[in-house]
Amino acid sequence: MKILFIYTDINVRGGAQSYQFGIGQVSAMLKKHNHETSLHYMFGSCDTEPLFETIKEYQPDLLAFSTVSPQFNYVKQVLEALPDGHPPTLLGGQHATLCPSCLKDTKNLDAICIGEGEYPALELVEAIRDNKSIDNIQNLWIKKPDGTIIENDCRPFIEDLNELPYPDRDIFDTQAIIDSDFKTVLFMFSRGCPYKCSFCSNHALRKKQDGKYVRFLTPDSCLVEIRDITKKYDVEALYFNDDCFTVSIDFVREFCEKYKAEFKYPFDINARPESLSDEICEILADAGCRRVSIGIECGHEQFRKDVLKRPMTNDRIKEAFASCHKYGLRTKSFNIVGFPGETAEIFEDTVKLNAEIKPDSVIIGIFEPYPGTELADVCISEKYIDPARAEDSFIGRTDTVLNMPNFPREEILKCFKTFAYRVYKNSNPKKAFMMRVYYSSAGQIILKLLSPFRSILRKVGMGV
């Protein structure tokens, strides 16, 4: 059987291509069972004509999509433009899982996968191959020709990630993606997050299947993949892009001890403030960790606790950044503006906290109400969402779809554009100026013009 994956990666700030782990995992499972896969990567624009040519030439037996909510409008455009006689279609990913009504509402969409997709996709492909009914495959919702929907129950989460094949990197132009990110390759060694932030999809995704939600590969399995990828591609650094790499201190100890015995590549990780200590940071630094990215999201302690369901104190955040700095680890802070119920005064605490902890770099995004999350439900109940703003030109995390009287769009955009500048204006004027330019309306154009100097710009702006 031949499966064509279609991946939309459109209107993304920064302009770099990306590797999609969900597609890589499902493709690897299908290839393991002797099926053929290919990818049509829609980057930059939603131009369907090249896709139709690909379908005509490749003659796939199934069209498979995976998408997050900010990209779903593009996926819907592609689906609804498919010509008559197209192959069956399947949609998986975060959006299908948390907004299953999309199956009923989208022309030419035949099935969606709720939750983890490796085994459901394999069973679907083999049922089509064998001309068997697909109506009873767990995790799949099927739309019949008369429009009725079959809603199958979900199987439990995959208990042992080590039983899965490693993600298929060949389906993407992986070397080009690595090159676009300063020779850095991404890995994902875990699934799930133990925390329950109200704005994040994790707290909703964990309810869709039974079983343990947070799972890690064994350190030995992680090393096997690192060994394979670093031999296959031209790589200078690694990024372990798990939601929280430091969830388990036992995993960190064992992984870092074995990693430093074999590899010299610097690596970056994501972590929560509660999971960082002097001990953890010393272990990470000794193994070659270069940078830790830490979510702050909001600097107002009470708002962060009550609304975002992130109960760590500001003092604990300061301690985490201090531990990183103590052992020479560079830091990046993640921040969001425009939460429902937030005000410009509340956001001021986010600026102040970042200015105090002095991260080496900061990231600021604008809140998006992901379907199925607690804060999206708040936005719906309070009638905050303005659908007129969610147009094709909308770039996620750089504009707001909310209309809040106490925090109007103009104020949110001002906070977004000036945040990094205000964080650094007293401690690092050079970096502040660069951040002011980057977040200006002409920032992306200027970055393209200065692309020959990307490494220098990154050193100034990111500290790496």
Task: List the topology elements.
Blueprint: E1 2-9, H1 21-32, E2 36-43, H2 48-58, E3 62-66, H3 72-81, E4 89-92, H4 94-98, H5 102-105, E5 111-113, H6 118-129, E6 140-143, E7 149-151, H7 174-180, E8 184-187, E9 190-191, H8 202-205, E10 215-216, H9 219-232, E11 237-240, H10 249-262, E12 267-271, H11 278-287, E13 289-297, H12 301-306, H13 314-326, E14 330-337, H14 344-357, E15 361-366, H15 374-381, H16 409-424, H17 429-438, H18 443-449, H19 454-462
Parallel strand pairs: 1-2, 1-3, 3-4, 4-5, 8-11, 11-12, 12-13, 13-14, 14-15
Antiparallel strand pairs: 5-6, 6-7, 9-10
Helix pairs in contact: 1-6, 9-10, 10-11, 14-16, 16-17
Brief rundown of the structure:
The protein has 19 helices and 15 strands. It is α/β, with parallel strands linked by helices.
